Known about the structure:
alpha/beta, 12 strands, TIM Barrel, two-stranded antiparallel sheet, 11 helices, 39% helix, binds ligand PBG
Amino acid sequence: MTNPSPLDLIHRPRRTRRTEWMRRLVRENVLTTNDLIWPIFVQEGDVAREPIATMPGVDRLSIAAAVEAAREAAALGIPAMAIFPNTPPNLRDERGSEALNPDNLMCRALRAIKAAVPEIGLVADVALDPYTSHGHDGLMDGDVILNDETVAVLVSQALVQARAGADIIAPSDMMDGRVGAIRAALDAEGFADVSIMSYSAKYASAYYGPFRDAVGSAAKLSGDKKTYQMDFSNASEALHEAELDLAEGADMLMVKPGLPYLDILHRVKAHTGAPTFVYQVSGEYAMLQAAASAGMIDLEKAMVETLTAFKRAGADGILTYFAPAMARYLNKIKNA
Ligand code: PBG
Protein backbone atom coordinates (compact mmCIF):
# COMPACT_ATOMS: atom_id res chain seq x y z
CA MET A 1 0.00 0.00 0.00
CA THR A 2 1.33 3.44 -0.91
CA ASN A 3 1.44 6.06 1.71
CA PRO A 4 -1.55 8.45 1.54
CA SER A 5 -0.55 12.03 0.82
CA PRO A 6 -0.33 13.80 4.13
CA LEU A 7 -2.09 16.75 2.49
CA ASP A 8 -4.71 14.66 0.72
CA LEU A 9 -4.89 17.16 -2.13
CA ILE A 10 -7.65 16.92 -4.71
CA HIS A 11 -6.69 20.05 -6.60
CA ARG A 12 -3.20 20.22 -8.02
CA PRO A 13 -2.94 23.17 -10.43
CA ARG A 14 0.72 22.26 -10.93
CA ARG A 15 -0.40 19.26 -13.04
CA THR A 16 -1.10 21.60 -15.97
CA ARG A 17 2.35 23.16 -15.62
CA ARG A 18 4.28 19.89 -15.58
CA THR A 19 5.57 19.80 -19.15
CA GLU A 20 6.05 22.26 -21.98
CA TRP A 21 3.41 20.53 -24.14
CA MET A 22 0.87 20.78 -21.30
CA ARG A 23 1.70 24.43 -20.70
CA ARG A 24 1.17 25.06 -24.41
CA LEU A 25 -2.15 23.24 -24.24
CA VAL A 26 -3.57 25.41 -21.45
CA ARG A 27 -2.00 28.70 -22.58
CA GLU A 28 -4.63 31.47 -22.58
CA ASN A 29 -2.95 34.29 -24.46
CA VAL A 30 -0.56 34.13 -27.37
CA LEU A 31 1.19 37.07 -28.93
CA THR A 32 1.80 36.95 -32.68
CA THR A 33 3.51 39.27 -35.16
CA ASN A 34 -0.01 40.43 -36.10
CA ASP A 35 -0.18 42.27 -32.78
CA LEU A 36 2.79 44.55 -33.43
CA ILE A 37 3.05 48.15 -34.58
CA TRP A 38 6.61 49.41 -35.01
CA PRO A 39 7.21 53.11 -34.22
CA ILE A 40 10.17 54.62 -36.10
CA PHE A 41 11.83 58.05 -36.17
CA VAL A 42 12.81 59.75 -39.42
CA GLN A 43 15.38 62.49 -40.01
CA GLU A 44 16.41 64.74 -42.93
CA GLY A 45 19.42 64.06 -45.09
CA ASP A 46 21.44 61.18 -46.45
CA VAL A 47 22.91 59.84 -43.22
CA ALA A 48 21.15 56.48 -43.09
CA ARG A 49 20.91 56.18 -39.31
CA GLU A 50 21.83 58.14 -36.24
CA PRO A 51 21.69 56.53 -32.79
CA ILE A 52 19.38 57.99 -30.14
CA ALA A 53 21.44 58.16 -26.95
CA THR A 54 18.57 57.45 -24.57
CA MET A 55 17.09 54.61 -26.68
CA PRO A 56 19.81 51.97 -27.16
CA GLY A 57 19.15 49.99 -30.33
CA VAL A 58 16.84 52.61 -31.86
CA ASP A 59 18.15 54.96 -34.56
CA ARG A 60 16.70 57.93 -36.37
CA LEU A 61 16.43 56.87 -40.02
CA SER A 62 16.79 58.71 -43.31
CA ILE A 63 13.79 58.30 -45.58
CA ALA A 64 15.70 55.70 -47.63
CA ALA A 65 16.55 53.77 -44.44
CA ALA A 66 12.91 54.04 -43.31
CA VAL A 67 11.84 52.42 -46.58
CA GLU A 68 14.32 49.61 -45.88
CA ALA A 69 12.87 49.27 -42.37
CA ALA A 70 9.40 48.96 -43.91
CA ARG A 71 10.63 46.16 -46.16
CA GLU A 72 12.09 44.45 -43.10
CA ALA A 73 8.79 44.89 -41.22
CA ALA A 74 6.86 43.34 -44.11
CA ALA A 75 9.28 40.40 -44.28
CA LEU A 76 8.91 39.86 -40.52
CA GLY A 77 5.09 39.91 -40.71
CA ILE A 78 4.63 43.20 -38.83
CA PRO A 79 1.34 44.73 -40.08
CA ALA A 80 1.96 48.42 -39.45
CA MET A 81 4.47 51.13 -38.58
CA ALA A 82 4.05 54.48 -36.84
CA ILE A 83 6.19 57.31 -38.19
CA PHE A 84 7.58 60.22 -36.13
CA PRO A 85 9.67 63.05 -37.61
CA ASN A 86 12.67 64.84 -36.15
CA THR A 87 11.93 68.23 -37.68
CA PRO A 88 15.05 70.37 -38.30
CA PRO A 89 15.21 73.12 -35.62
CA ASN A 90 15.06 75.97 -38.16
CA LEU A 91 11.66 74.73 -39.35
CA ARG A 92 10.08 74.78 -35.88
CA ASP A 93 8.01 77.78 -34.90
CA GLU A 94 5.43 78.86 -32.33
CA ARG A 95 2.52 77.56 -34.41
CA GLY A 96 4.08 74.34 -35.68
CA SER A 97 3.53 75.56 -39.27
CA GLU A 98 5.77 72.86 -40.75
CA ALA A 99 3.14 70.27 -39.72
CA LEU A 100 0.95 71.62 -42.54
CA ASN A 101 3.63 71.52 -45.24
CA PRO A 102 2.60 68.74 -47.65
CA ASP A 103 6.30 68.19 -48.41
CA ASN A 104 7.49 68.03 -44.83
CA LEU A 105 9.72 65.19 -43.67
CA MET A 106 6.76 63.21 -42.32
CA CYS A 107 4.78 63.41 -45.58
CA ARG A 108 7.79 62.55 -47.73
CA ALA A 109 8.45 59.52 -45.50
CA LEU A 110 4.81 58.42 -45.72
CA ARG A 111 4.79 58.73 -49.53
CA ALA A 112 8.11 56.93 -49.96
CA ILE A 113 7.14 54.00 -47.74
CA LYS A 114 3.63 53.71 -49.24
CA ALA A 115 5.06 53.66 -52.78
CA ALA A 116 7.74 51.05 -51.99
CA VAL A 117 5.94 48.79 -49.50
CA PRO A 118 2.19 49.27 -50.02
CA GLU A 119 1.32 46.24 -47.90
CA ILE A 120 2.51 47.94 -44.69
CA GLY A 121 -0.10 49.96 -42.75
CA LEU A 122 1.05 53.49 -41.94
CA VAL A 123 0.09 55.20 -38.69
CA ALA A 124 0.56 58.98 -38.66
CA ASP A 125 0.79 60.82 -35.36
CA VAL A 126 -1.25 64.00 -35.17
CA ALA A 127 0.07 66.55 -32.65
CA LEU A 128 2.26 69.61 -33.03
CA ASP A 129 5.15 68.84 -30.65
CA PRO A 130 7.65 67.67 -33.31
CA TYR A 131 7.03 70.99 -35.11
CA THR A 132 6.70 73.66 -32.39
CA SER A 133 9.53 75.79 -31.00
CA HIS A 134 8.10 75.34 -27.48
CA GLY A 135 7.67 71.54 -27.68
CA HIS A 136 3.98 71.54 -26.78
CA ASP A 137 1.36 69.60 -28.74
CA GLY A 138 -0.81 72.65 -29.37
CA LEU A 139 -0.90 76.40 -29.95
CA MET A 140 -0.12 78.60 -26.97
CA ASP A 141 -1.32 81.89 -25.61
CA GLY A 142 1.15 82.66 -22.83
CA ASP A 143 1.25 79.48 -20.77
CA VAL A 144 -2.16 78.29 -21.94
CA ILE A 145 -2.57 75.57 -24.57
CA LEU A 146 -5.47 76.70 -26.74
CA ASN A 147 -7.96 73.91 -27.42
CA ASP A 148 -10.21 74.88 -30.31
CA GLU A 149 -7.55 76.82 -32.22
CA THR A 150 -5.28 73.77 -31.93
CA VAL A 151 -8.01 71.42 -33.16
CA ALA A 152 -8.37 73.51 -36.34
CA VAL A 153 -4.65 73.06 -37.04
CA LEU A 154 -4.71 69.33 -36.19
CA VAL A 155 -7.51 68.84 -38.73
CA SER A 156 -5.30 70.36 -41.45
CA GLN A 157 -2.35 68.25 -40.28
CA ALA A 158 -4.46 65.07 -40.49
CA LEU A 159 -5.58 65.94 -44.04
CA VAL A 160 -1.99 66.61 -45.15
CA GLN A 161 -1.00 63.19 -43.76
CA ALA A 162 -3.98 61.40 -45.32
CA ARG A 163 -3.08 62.91 -48.71
CA ALA A 164 0.48 61.63 -48.23
CA GLY A 165 -0.78 58.07 -47.76
CA ALA A 166 -1.45 57.61 -44.03
CA ASP A 167 -3.84 54.70 -43.42
CA ILE A 168 -4.44 55.44 -39.76
CA ILE A 169 -4.54 58.91 -38.23
CA ALA A 170 -3.46 58.78 -34.60
CA PRO A 171 -4.14 61.98 -32.68
CA SER A 172 -1.81 62.02 -29.65
CA ASP A 173 -2.42 65.64 -28.65
CA MET A 174 -5.27 65.13 -26.12
CA MET A 175 -7.21 68.22 -27.20
CA ASP A 176 -10.97 67.95 -26.62
CA GLY A 177 -13.12 67.30 -29.69
CA ARG A 178 -10.29 66.58 -32.09
CA VAL A 179 -11.47 63.12 -33.10
CA GLY A 180 -14.88 64.38 -34.26
CA ALA A 181 -13.35 67.31 -36.12
CA ILE A 182 -10.76 65.11 -37.85
CA ARG A 183 -13.39 62.49 -38.77
CA ALA A 184 -15.67 65.11 -40.34
CA ALA A 185 -12.81 66.63 -42.35
CA LEU A 186 -11.50 63.26 -43.55
CA ASP A 187 -14.99 62.28 -44.72
CA ALA A 188 -15.57 65.62 -46.44
CA GLU A 189 -12.26 65.34 -48.31
CA GLY A 190 -12.84 61.80 -49.61
CA PHE A 191 -10.92 59.90 -46.94
CA ALA A 192 -13.81 57.92 -45.48
CA ASP A 193 -11.61 54.81 -45.44
CA VAL A 194 -8.80 56.39 -43.42
CA SER A 195 -9.07 55.15 -39.83
CA ILE A 196 -8.62 57.01 -36.58
CA MET A 197 -6.68 55.42 -33.73
CA SER A 198 -7.19 57.80 -30.87
CA TYR A 199 -4.72 58.18 -28.04
CA SER A 200 -7.74 58.23 -25.71
CA ALA A 201 -6.11 57.66 -22.38
CA LYS A 202 -2.76 59.34 -22.65
CA TYR A 203 -1.28 60.20 -19.30
CA ALA A 204 1.12 63.04 -18.43
CA SER A 205 4.05 60.72 -17.86
CA ALA A 206 7.73 60.72 -16.97
CA TYR A 207 8.18 57.83 -19.38
CA TYR A 208 8.15 59.96 -22.56
CA GLY A 209 11.62 61.42 -21.93
CA PRO A 210 13.62 59.42 -24.49
CA PHE A 211 10.96 60.01 -27.19
CA ARG A 212 11.35 63.75 -26.71
CA ASP A 213 15.10 63.32 -27.33
CA ALA A 214 14.32 61.27 -30.43
CA VAL A 215 12.09 63.91 -32.02
CA GLY A 216 14.22 66.75 -30.66
CA SER A 217 11.57 68.41 -28.50
CA ALA A 218 13.02 67.64 -25.03
CA ALA A 219 15.34 70.63 -24.68
CA LYS A 220 12.63 72.94 -25.93
CA LEU A 221 9.73 71.86 -23.77
CA SER A 222 8.60 74.63 -21.47
CA GLY A 223 6.70 73.38 -18.42
CA ASP A 224 4.75 70.13 -18.54
CA LYS A 225 1.73 68.71 -20.38
CA LYS A 226 -0.56 68.32 -17.38
CA THR A 227 -3.31 70.63 -18.68
CA TYR A 228 -4.02 68.28 -21.58
CA GLN A 229 -2.58 64.83 -20.82
CA MET A 230 -4.30 62.87 -18.05
CA ASP A 231 -3.49 62.80 -14.35
CA PHE A 232 -1.94 59.42 -13.51
CA SER A 233 -4.07 59.25 -10.37
CA ASN A 234 -7.23 58.78 -12.44
CA ALA A 235 -8.78 55.63 -13.90
CA SER A 236 -12.53 56.15 -14.44
CA GLU A 237 -11.74 59.30 -16.38
CA ALA A 238 -10.01 57.11 -18.97
CA LEU A 239 -13.33 55.35 -19.63
CA HIS A 240 -15.01 58.72 -20.07
CA GLU A 241 -12.30 59.81 -22.55
CA ALA A 242 -12.63 56.52 -24.44
CA GLU A 243 -16.41 56.86 -24.69
CA LEU A 244 -16.14 60.42 -25.99
CA ASP A 245 -13.61 59.39 -28.65
CA LEU A 246 -15.80 56.49 -29.79
CA ALA A 247 -18.83 58.78 -29.93
CA GLU A 248 -16.80 61.19 -32.06
CA GLY A 249 -15.91 58.43 -34.50
CA ALA A 250 -12.67 56.81 -33.33
CA ASP A 251 -12.20 53.33 -34.84
CA MET A 252 -9.53 52.27 -32.37
CA LEU A 253 -8.47 53.39 -28.94
CA MET A 254 -5.07 53.59 -27.33
CA VAL A 255 -3.78 53.58 -23.77
CA LYS A 256 -0.39 55.09 -23.06
CA PRO A 257 2.08 54.45 -21.41
CA GLY A 258 1.82 50.68 -21.19
CA LEU A 259 3.15 48.68 -18.28
CA PRO A 260 2.31 51.13 -15.46
CA TYR A 261 -1.22 51.37 -16.92
CA LEU A 262 -2.27 47.73 -17.42
CA ASP A 263 -5.29 48.37 -15.19
CA ILE A 264 -6.42 51.15 -17.54
CA LEU A 265 -5.85 48.98 -20.60
CA HIS A 266 -7.92 46.19 -19.10
CA ARG A 267 -10.73 48.50 -18.09
CA VAL A 268 -10.89 50.38 -21.40
CA LYS A 269 -11.08 47.12 -23.36
CA ALA A 270 -13.64 45.55 -21.02
CA HIS A 271 -15.75 48.69 -20.87
CA THR A 272 -15.85 49.58 -24.57
CA GLY A 273 -15.23 46.34 -26.45
CA ALA A 274 -13.58 48.51 -29.12
CA PRO A 275 -10.27 47.64 -30.75
CA THR A 276 -7.81 48.75 -28.07
CA PHE A 277 -4.10 49.34 -28.44
CA VAL A 278 -1.36 50.07 -25.97
CA TYR A 279 1.89 52.00 -26.41
CA GLN A 280 4.95 50.63 -24.66
CA VAL A 281 6.62 54.03 -24.60
CA SER A 282 10.22 55.11 -24.92
CA GLY A 283 10.95 55.22 -21.18
CA GLU A 284 9.67 51.67 -20.70
CA TYR A 285 11.86 50.50 -23.57
CA ALA A 286 14.86 52.40 -22.18
CA MET A 287 14.40 50.92 -18.68
CA LEU A 288 14.47 47.36 -20.00
CA GLN A 289 17.52 48.10 -22.14
CA ALA A 290 19.32 49.79 -19.24
CA ALA A 291 18.60 46.95 -16.81
CA ALA A 292 19.71 44.38 -19.37
CA SER A 293 22.93 46.19 -20.20
CA ALA A 294 23.70 46.43 -16.47
CA GLY A 295 23.36 42.65 -16.34
CA MET A 296 20.26 42.82 -14.14
CA ILE A 297 17.70 41.14 -16.38
CA ASP A 298 17.61 38.98 -19.50
CA LEU A 299 16.41 41.33 -22.25
CA GLU A 300 14.72 38.75 -24.47
CA LYS A 301 12.84 37.12 -21.60
CA ALA A 302 11.75 40.48 -20.19
CA MET A 303 10.61 41.64 -23.65
CA VAL A 304 8.49 38.53 -24.23
CA GLU A 305 6.98 38.62 -20.74
CA THR A 306 6.16 42.32 -20.92
CA LEU A 307 4.59 42.22 -24.37
CA THR A 308 2.57 39.12 -23.46
CA ALA A 309 1.31 40.97 -20.37
CA PHE A 310 -0.26 43.58 -22.67
CA LYS A 311 -2.03 40.84 -24.58
CA ARG A 312 -3.25 39.27 -21.33
CA ALA A 313 -4.56 42.65 -20.15
CA GLY A 314 -6.68 42.92 -23.30
CA ALA A 315 -4.62 44.70 -25.94
CA ASP A 316 -5.52 43.99 -29.55
CA GLY A 317 -2.16 45.36 -30.57
CA ILE A 318 0.97 46.94 -29.17
CA LEU A 319 3.09 49.86 -30.33
CA THR A 320 6.60 48.89 -29.29
CA TYR A 321 10.19 49.72 -30.22
CA PHE A 322 10.81 46.01 -29.70
CA ALA A 323 8.54 45.16 -32.68
CA PRO A 324 11.31 43.86 -34.99
CA ALA A 325 13.11 42.04 -32.14
CA MET A 326 9.85 40.48 -30.97
CA ALA A 327 8.90 39.50 -34.51
CA ARG A 328 12.31 37.88 -35.00
CA TYR A 329 11.85 36.00 -31.73
CA LEU A 330 8.36 34.80 -32.73
CA ASN A 331 9.59 33.70 -36.16
CA LYS A 332 12.51 31.88 -34.50
CA ILE A 333 10.34 29.88 -32.10
CA LYS A 334 7.84 29.11 -34.87
CA ASN A 335 10.61 27.65 -37.02
CA ALA A 336 12.42 25.90 -34.17
C1 PBG B 1 3.57 63.48 -28.90
C2 PBG B 1 3.85 62.07 -28.55
C3 PBG B 1 4.60 61.65 -27.46
C4 PBG B 1 4.73 60.27 -27.59
C5 PBG B 1 4.01 59.87 -28.74
N1 PBG B 1 3.45 61.01 -29.31
C6 PBG B 1 5.31 62.41 -26.40
C7 PBG B 1 4.61 63.38 -25.57
O1 PBG B 1 3.39 63.41 -25.47
O2 PBG B 1 5.33 64.19 -24.99
C8 PBG B 1 5.52 59.42 -26.66
C9 PBG B 1 5.98 58.10 -27.16
C10 PBG B 1 7.08 57.49 -26.39
O3 PBG B 1 7.50 57.97 -25.33
O4 PBG B 1 7.58 56.46 -26.87
N2 PBG B 1 2.35 63.97 -28.99
